[in-house]
Predict the 3D structure of the following.
Amino acid sequence: MRRQKIALMVVSFCLLITALSIAPVWGSKGGGIQQYIIANTGTNQMYTSVNFQTGLNTNGSAILAGDELSITFTISANLATGADLKVSTDLSHSSLKQVYWELKGSYAGIDQNTFNPNQNFVNFKQQSGALQLVCYGAVPQTITQTTIGGTVLHSKASPTIIKLTGPNGEVLDQIVVDVIDSKILSYQSVYSNAETKFNSLGDVDPAYKSLYQSVLSGARLAAAQGFVDNAISTLQSLTSGLAPLPIGTPILATLFIPVVAVMAVIAVVAVFLFMKNRGKSSYYSLVIEDQIKDLEGLTMRAARIDRTLASNLEGVKERLQQIVGA
Protein backbone atom coordinates (compact mmCIF):
# COMPACT_ATOMS: atom_id res chain seq x y z
CA MET A 1 0.00 0.00 0.00
CA ARG A 2 2.85 2.37 0.85
CA ARG A 3 4.51 1.67 -2.50
CA GLN A 4 1.26 2.49 -4.29
CA LYS A 5 0.94 5.81 -2.46
CA ILE A 6 4.51 6.73 -3.37
CA ALA A 7 3.83 5.83 -7.01
CA LEU A 8 0.74 8.03 -7.09
CA MET A 9 2.72 10.94 -5.59
CA VAL A 10 5.29 10.54 -8.35
CA VAL A 11 2.47 10.54 -10.91
CA SER A 12 1.03 13.79 -9.57
CA PHE A 13 4.43 15.47 -9.75
CA CYS A 14 5.02 14.25 -13.34
CA LEU A 15 1.60 15.45 -14.48
CA LEU A 16 2.25 18.87 -12.91
CA ILE A 17 5.59 19.22 -14.71
CA THR A 18 3.95 18.19 -17.99
CA ALA A 19 1.21 20.78 -17.63
CA LEU A 20 3.73 23.55 -16.89
CA SER A 21 5.98 22.62 -19.81
CA ILE A 22 3.37 22.68 -22.61
CA ALA A 23 4.54 25.22 -25.22
CA PRO A 24 2.06 27.74 -26.63
CA VAL A 25 0.96 27.39 -30.24
CA TRP A 26 0.81 30.36 -32.58
CA GLY A 27 -0.48 30.90 -36.08
CA SER A 28 2.04 33.28 -37.65
CA LYS A 29 4.21 36.09 -36.33
CA GLY A 30 3.41 38.34 -39.26
CA GLY A 31 7.12 38.70 -40.04
CA GLY A 32 6.73 38.23 -43.78
CA ILE A 33 3.43 36.39 -44.14
CA GLN A 34 0.87 39.18 -44.35
CA GLN A 35 -2.30 37.12 -44.49
CA TYR A 36 -3.47 33.53 -44.93
CA ILE A 37 -6.61 31.44 -45.27
CA ILE A 38 -6.68 27.73 -44.45
CA ALA A 39 -9.50 25.70 -46.00
CA ASN A 40 -10.42 22.10 -46.74
CA THR A 41 -9.35 21.27 -50.30
CA GLY A 42 -12.27 18.91 -50.91
CA THR A 43 -15.13 20.86 -49.32
CA ASN A 44 -13.76 24.46 -49.29
CA GLN A 45 -14.79 24.64 -45.64
CA MET A 46 -12.70 27.32 -43.92
CA TYR A 47 -10.63 26.45 -40.86
CA THR A 48 -9.11 29.86 -40.17
CA SER A 49 -8.47 33.24 -41.76
CA VAL A 50 -5.85 35.72 -40.53
CA ASN A 51 -5.03 39.18 -41.88
CA PHE A 52 -2.22 41.00 -40.08
CA GLN A 53 -2.86 44.21 -41.99
CA THR A 54 -6.49 44.55 -40.91
CA GLY A 55 -6.20 42.61 -37.68
CA LEU A 56 -9.19 40.42 -38.60
CA ASN A 57 -9.00 36.78 -37.44
CA THR A 58 -11.71 34.18 -38.06
CA ASN A 59 -11.69 30.60 -36.78
CA GLY A 60 -13.90 27.79 -38.03
CA SER A 61 -13.85 24.04 -37.40
CA ALA A 62 -10.92 22.07 -35.99
CA ILE A 63 -8.27 20.60 -38.29
CA LEU A 64 -8.24 16.80 -38.07
CA ALA A 65 -5.50 14.31 -38.85
CA GLY A 66 -5.84 13.23 -42.49
CA ASP A 67 -7.54 16.45 -43.61
CA GLU A 68 -6.64 17.88 -47.02
CA LEU A 69 -5.61 21.53 -46.67
CA SER A 70 -5.40 24.50 -49.02
CA ILE A 71 -3.40 27.42 -47.60
CA THR A 72 -3.68 30.66 -49.54
CA PHE A 73 -1.13 33.18 -48.26
CA THR A 74 0.66 36.40 -49.16
CA ILE A 75 4.36 37.09 -48.50
CA SER A 76 5.91 40.54 -48.35
CA ALA A 77 9.21 40.32 -46.47
CA ASN A 78 10.99 43.48 -45.32
CA LEU A 79 14.34 42.56 -46.90
CA ALA A 80 16.67 44.00 -49.51
CA THR A 81 15.74 43.41 -53.14
CA GLY A 82 17.40 40.26 -54.46
CA ALA A 83 17.60 38.48 -51.08
CA ASP A 84 17.31 34.70 -51.42
CA LEU A 85 14.21 33.35 -49.67
CA LYS A 86 12.54 29.98 -49.34
CA VAL A 87 9.00 28.90 -48.44
CA SER A 88 8.33 25.26 -47.47
CA THR A 89 5.71 22.98 -45.93
CA ASP A 90 5.75 19.90 -43.70
CA LEU A 91 2.46 18.61 -45.11
CA SER A 92 2.28 15.36 -47.04
CA HIS A 93 1.50 15.49 -50.76
CA SER A 94 -2.17 16.10 -51.48
CA SER A 95 -4.22 13.22 -52.85
CA LEU A 96 -6.62 15.70 -54.49
CA LYS A 97 -4.12 17.94 -56.24
CA GLN A 98 -1.20 17.09 -58.50
CA VAL A 99 1.06 19.81 -57.07
CA TYR A 100 2.14 21.39 -53.79
CA TRP A 101 2.10 24.98 -55.04
CA GLU A 102 -0.01 27.23 -57.21
CA LEU A 103 1.23 30.73 -58.04
CA LYS A 104 -1.46 33.41 -58.00
CA GLY A 105 -0.74 36.09 -60.57
CA SER A 106 2.93 36.73 -61.35
CA TYR A 107 6.02 37.51 -59.29
CA ALA A 108 9.35 38.62 -60.72
CA GLY A 109 11.31 36.86 -57.98
CA ILE A 110 10.31 33.37 -59.14
CA ASP A 111 12.31 31.88 -61.97
CA GLN A 112 9.76 30.07 -64.12
CA ASN A 113 12.56 27.93 -65.61
CA THR A 114 13.44 26.37 -62.26
CA PHE A 115 10.10 26.62 -60.46
CA ASN A 116 8.87 23.12 -59.60
CA PRO A 117 5.34 23.20 -58.09
CA ASN A 118 5.51 19.50 -57.24
CA GLN A 119 8.19 19.71 -54.53
CA ASN A 120 7.55 20.81 -50.96
CA PHE A 121 9.51 24.08 -51.17
CA VAL A 122 9.86 27.11 -53.43
CA ASN A 123 13.04 29.20 -53.76
CA PHE A 124 12.59 32.83 -54.79
CA LYS A 125 14.22 36.25 -54.61
CA GLN A 126 12.84 39.26 -52.82
CA GLN A 127 11.34 41.70 -55.30
CA SER A 128 8.95 44.62 -55.06
CA GLY A 129 5.34 43.67 -54.61
CA ALA A 130 3.77 40.70 -52.84
CA LEU A 131 4.04 37.02 -53.59
CA GLN A 132 0.76 35.10 -53.38
CA LEU A 133 0.82 31.30 -53.29
CA VAL A 134 -1.55 28.45 -52.59
CA CYS A 135 -0.12 25.40 -50.84
CA TYR A 136 -1.92 22.06 -51.17
CA GLY A 137 -1.16 19.24 -48.77
CA ALA A 138 -2.50 16.60 -46.42
CA VAL A 139 -2.11 16.35 -42.67
CA PRO A 140 -0.49 12.95 -41.92
CA GLN A 141 -3.12 10.47 -40.68
CA THR A 142 -1.07 9.34 -37.68
CA ILE A 143 0.37 12.71 -36.65
CA THR A 144 -1.60 12.65 -33.38
CA GLN A 145 -0.76 9.04 -32.49
CA THR A 146 2.11 7.56 -30.50
CA THR A 147 2.34 3.83 -29.75
CA ILE A 148 4.01 2.87 -26.47
CA GLY A 149 4.01 -0.69 -25.21
CA GLY A 150 1.25 -1.65 -27.63
CA THR A 151 -1.00 1.18 -26.45
CA VAL A 152 -1.95 3.98 -28.88
CA LEU A 153 -1.89 7.42 -27.30
CA HIS A 154 -3.77 10.33 -28.91
CA SER A 155 -2.40 13.84 -28.40
CA LYS A 156 -2.81 17.19 -30.10
CA ALA A 157 -0.11 17.91 -32.70
CA SER A 158 1.17 21.30 -33.82
CA PRO A 159 2.79 20.96 -37.26
CA THR A 160 4.40 23.83 -39.17
CA ILE A 161 2.38 23.92 -42.37
CA ILE A 162 4.18 26.95 -43.88
CA LYS A 163 7.72 28.16 -43.13
CA LEU A 164 9.48 31.21 -44.59
CA THR A 165 13.27 31.21 -44.24
CA GLY A 166 15.85 33.87 -45.05
CA PRO A 167 19.21 33.93 -46.87
CA ASN A 168 21.05 32.18 -44.00
CA GLY A 169 18.33 29.65 -43.26
CA GLU A 170 16.88 31.72 -40.43
CA VAL A 171 13.14 31.40 -39.86
CA LEU A 172 11.46 34.68 -40.77
CA ASP A 173 7.89 33.53 -40.27
CA GLN A 174 5.81 30.39 -40.05
CA ILE A 175 2.23 29.16 -39.80
CA VAL A 176 1.65 26.61 -37.05
CA VAL A 177 -1.73 24.96 -36.47
CA ASP A 178 -3.30 22.67 -33.90
CA VAL A 179 -4.35 19.25 -35.19
CA ILE A 180 -6.51 16.71 -33.37
CA ASP A 181 -8.14 13.44 -34.47
CA SER A 182 -11.58 11.87 -34.26
CA LYS A 183 -10.78 10.25 -30.90
CA ILE A 184 -9.81 13.58 -29.35
CA LEU A 185 -12.86 15.23 -30.92
CA SER A 186 -15.05 12.53 -29.36
CA TYR A 187 -13.40 13.09 -25.97
CA GLN A 188 -14.07 16.83 -26.21
CA SER A 189 -17.74 16.15 -26.94
CA VAL A 190 -18.13 13.65 -24.09
CA TYR A 191 -16.29 15.95 -21.69
CA SER A 192 -18.54 18.86 -22.69
CA ASN A 193 -21.63 16.73 -21.99
CA ALA A 194 -20.27 15.67 -18.60
CA GLU A 195 -19.45 19.28 -17.72
CA THR A 196 -22.91 20.40 -18.79
CA LYS A 197 -24.47 17.73 -16.57
CA PHE A 198 -22.36 18.91 -13.62
CA ASN A 199 -23.43 22.54 -14.14
CA SER A 200 -27.07 21.45 -14.16
CA LEU A 201 -26.87 19.59 -10.84
CA GLY A 202 -29.35 20.90 -8.34
CA ASP A 203 -29.64 20.30 -4.61
CA VAL A 204 -27.48 17.19 -4.25
CA ASP A 205 -24.96 15.91 -1.74
CA PRO A 206 -21.79 18.09 -1.76
CA ALA A 207 -19.75 14.88 -1.71
CA TYR A 208 -21.32 13.94 -5.04
CA LYS A 209 -20.25 17.23 -6.60
CA SER A 210 -16.76 16.95 -5.17
CA LEU A 211 -16.27 13.45 -6.55
CA TYR A 212 -17.79 14.47 -9.89
CA GLN A 213 -15.25 17.29 -10.18
CA SER A 214 -12.45 14.88 -9.28
CA VAL A 215 -13.48 12.60 -12.13
CA LEU A 216 -13.58 15.53 -14.57
CA SER A 217 -10.12 16.61 -13.46
CA GLY A 218 -8.80 13.05 -13.73
CA ALA A 219 -10.25 12.70 -17.23
CA ARG A 220 -8.52 15.91 -18.32
CA LEU A 221 -5.18 14.66 -17.01
CA ALA A 222 -5.61 11.25 -18.65
CA ALA A 223 -6.50 12.86 -21.99
CA ALA A 224 -3.54 15.25 -21.71
CA GLN A 225 -1.25 12.21 -21.39
CA GLY A 226 -2.85 10.65 -24.49
CA PHE A 227 -5.12 8.12 -22.73
CA VAL A 228 -8.17 9.40 -24.58
CA ASP A 229 -10.01 6.04 -24.68
CA ASN A 230 -9.80 5.67 -20.91
CA ALA A 231 -10.86 9.28 -20.38
CA ILE A 232 -13.91 8.76 -22.63
CA SER A 233 -14.86 5.53 -20.84
CA THR A 234 -14.68 7.21 -17.45
CA LEU A 235 -16.66 10.28 -18.53
CA GLN A 236 -19.34 8.05 -20.03
CA SER A 237 -19.69 6.48 -16.59
CA LEU A 238 -20.70 9.92 -15.36
CA THR A 239 -23.16 10.76 -18.11
CA SER A 240 -24.80 7.33 -18.31
CA GLY A 241 -24.87 6.47 -14.60
CA LEU A 242 -27.74 6.81 -12.12
CA ALA A 243 -29.29 10.24 -11.77
CA PRO A 244 -28.13 12.09 -8.61
CA LEU A 245 -30.37 11.72 -5.57
CA PRO A 246 -31.28 14.42 -2.99
CA ILE A 247 -28.95 15.52 -0.19
CA GLY A 248 -28.52 12.96 2.54
CA THR A 249 -28.42 9.90 0.29
CA PRO A 250 -25.13 8.09 1.13
CA ILE A 251 -25.27 6.00 -2.06
CA LEU A 252 -23.98 9.02 -4.01
CA ALA A 253 -20.50 8.78 -2.56
CA THR A 254 -20.47 5.01 -3.10
CA LEU A 255 -21.45 5.39 -6.74
CA PHE A 256 -18.44 7.44 -7.82
CA ILE A 257 -15.65 6.13 -5.58
CA PRO A 258 -14.85 3.36 -8.13
CA VAL A 259 -14.53 5.91 -10.92
CA VAL A 260 -12.08 8.04 -8.93
CA ALA A 261 -10.06 4.90 -8.23
CA VAL A 262 -9.94 4.15 -11.95
CA MET A 263 -8.49 7.60 -12.64
CA ALA A 264 -5.69 6.85 -10.18
CA VAL A 265 -5.01 3.61 -12.03
CA ILE A 266 -4.85 5.47 -15.36
CA ALA A 267 -2.33 7.89 -13.89
CA VAL A 268 -0.12 5.04 -12.70
CA VAL A 269 -0.31 3.45 -16.15
CA ALA A 270 0.87 6.72 -17.72
CA VAL A 271 4.02 6.69 -15.64
CA PHE A 272 4.50 2.94 -16.22
CA LEU A 273 4.48 3.34 -19.99
CA PHE A 274 6.89 6.24 -20.04
CA MET A 275 9.25 4.62 -17.54
CA LYS A 276 9.10 1.26 -19.31
CA ASN A 277 12.28 1.81 -21.26
CA ARG A 278 14.18 3.10 -18.22
CA GLY A 279 14.53 -0.19 -16.39
CA LYS A 280 11.68 0.34 -13.91
CA SER A 281 8.87 -1.51 -15.63
CA SER A 282 8.82 -4.45 -13.19
CA TYR A 283 8.04 -2.25 -10.19
CA TYR A 284 5.26 -0.33 -11.89
CA SER A 285 3.91 -3.54 -13.34
CA LEU A 286 3.44 -4.86 -9.79
CA VAL A 287 1.70 -1.64 -8.79
CA ILE A 288 -0.73 -1.89 -11.71
CA GLU A 289 -1.44 -5.57 -11.03
CA ASP A 290 -2.38 -4.66 -7.45
CA GLN A 291 -4.67 -1.93 -8.75
CA ILE A 292 -6.31 -4.39 -11.14
CA LYS A 293 -7.16 -6.66 -8.20
CA ASP A 294 -8.71 -3.72 -6.36
CA LEU A 295 -10.60 -2.77 -9.50
CA GLU A 296 -12.18 -6.23 -9.69
CA GLY A 297 -13.74 -5.72 -6.27
CA LEU A 298 -14.88 -2.21 -7.11
CA THR A 299 -16.50 -3.46 -10.31
CA MET A 300 -18.53 -6.02 -8.34
CA ARG A 301 -19.70 -3.29 -5.98
CA ALA A 302 -20.62 -1.01 -8.87
CA ALA A 303 -22.64 -3.79 -10.51
CA ARG A 304 -25.09 -3.66 -7.62
CA ILE A 305 -25.70 0.04 -8.28
CA ASP A 306 -25.26 0.68 -12.00
CA ARG A 307 -24.64 -2.01 -14.64
CA THR A 308 -23.44 0.55 -17.20
CA LEU A 309 -20.82 1.88 -14.80
CA ALA A 310 -19.71 -1.67 -13.98
CA SER A 311 -19.39 -2.51 -17.68
CA ASN A 312 -17.21 0.57 -18.29
CA LEU A 313 -14.98 -0.30 -15.35
CA GLU A 314 -14.63 -3.85 -16.66
CA GLY A 315 -13.46 -2.45 -20.01
CA VAL A 316 -10.82 -0.31 -18.31
CA LYS A 317 -9.63 -3.32 -16.30
CA GLU A 318 -9.23 -5.41 -19.46
CA ARG A 319 -7.15 -2.69 -21.14
CA LEU A 320 -4.87 -2.52 -18.09
CA GLN A 321 -4.46 -6.30 -18.19
CA GLN A 322 -3.42 -6.11 -21.84
CA ILE A 323 -0.78 -3.47 -21.03
CA VAL A 324 0.94 -5.54 -18.33
CA GLY A 325 0.34 -8.83 -20.13
CA ALA A 326 -1.85 -10.24 -17.37
About this structure: The helical segments are 2-20, 182-199, 206-224, 228-240, 251-275, 281-303, 307-324.
